[in-house]
Amino acid sequence: MQVTFYGVRGSCPSPGAEFIKYGGNTACVHVELDDGTDIILDAGTGIKNLGQKLIKKTNDIHLLLTHNHWDHIQGFPFFAPIYQAGRNIYITPGQTTLAENDAILRQMSGSYFPVDYTTLKSHINIIAKPVDITSWQIGSARICRLPMNHPGSGSSFSIEENGKKIAYITDNELYPPYKKSTDFLDWVEFARDADLIIHDAQYMLADMPHKAGWGHSVAEEAVKLAMGSRAKRMALYSHDPVRTDDEILAIEKHCQEIIEIVDAKLVLFAAAEGLSLSL
Ligand SMILES: [Zn+2]
Question: Ligand 1 center to residue 162 CA distance, Å?
Fold first, then answer.
């Protein structure tokens, strides 16, 4: 599996000189399976640049959406393959409280966007899995999902292929003040022995309690999850849109120090646009 980050920012894009090292685009990760299958996690603004790569191919595209908040669908109208005649695009929507499975398409209609989704030349298929389906196959990979703790809910995903595993858990509040969908220990099982866990780390303890209930995690709590699941690598993800490069670097170092204190075997880094890992 080849995993590449195209958008690592939460909530809102962050262009500007202070946001270059980690990047300003919102959520999008590309997973290229060993069998050549292309899986995309979320369609934030980062998917625009990924589209410039995938437009050169003609194979099926599988897009897994966590939920429909803007920062996870906003890049889709600028994803070049949707304008490619005959291109097959399969979209699995997140399990949200409001089951608006085609929200990603309907943003291309009415007063929101000049090109209506009904005129697209690609074949876009919304594959809404029944509620009780928690696992299925895409290409040679096994996909599993688990409900996020987030306002409006949504899905987190794991992808396993040839003995390698990624857990993609963003917009997830590990310890929410509202009724949670998934307990911390269930997250530990979900991410168990992952080769890479990508987890929301938008906040620091200093942001609390002001931002409790906004649907994102404190970085230290995300690190605790990664260590508990005995993941090999962790990417801090969904960076706060106001967090500068220097501030993210400081969070990264702080989290690495926690790992050193407990002598855990976890390699931690802050996700950055363009970073690509071979698993
Ligand atoms: Zn969200």
Answer: 31
Q: How many domains does the chain have?
A: 1
Compute the distance from residue 35 Cα to the ligand 1 centre, in Å: 31
Domain of 79, in residue numbers? 2-278
Could you say which DSSP state residue 212 is in?
Answer: T
Measured in Å, residue 238 CA sits from the centre of ligand 1 at 10
143 C-alpha to center of ligand 1: Å?
A: 21
What's the gap in Å between 168 CA and the centre of ligand 1?
14
Residues of the chain with pLDDT under 70: none
* 250 Cα to the center of ligand 1, angstroms: 24
Spatial CA neighbour of 231 closest among 274, 181, 172, 169: 169
Which pairing describes strands 28-32 and 38-41: parallel, antiparallel, or unpaired?
antiparallel
Q: Tens digits of per-residue pLDDT, 25-81?
A: 999 999 999 999 999 999 999 999 999 999 999 999 999 999 999 999 999 999 999
CA of 163 to the centre of ligand 1 (A): 30
Interval 87-104: pLDDT, tens: 999 999 999 999 899 999
CATH code: domain of residue 107: 3.60.15.10
Q: State the first-to-last Cα distance of the chain, in angstroms, to the nearest integer.
A: 5
How far, in Å, from the CA of 171 to the mean position of ligand 1?
A: 5
DSSP 157-199: EEEEETTEEEEEE-S--SS-SS--SS-HHHHHHHTTT-SEEEE
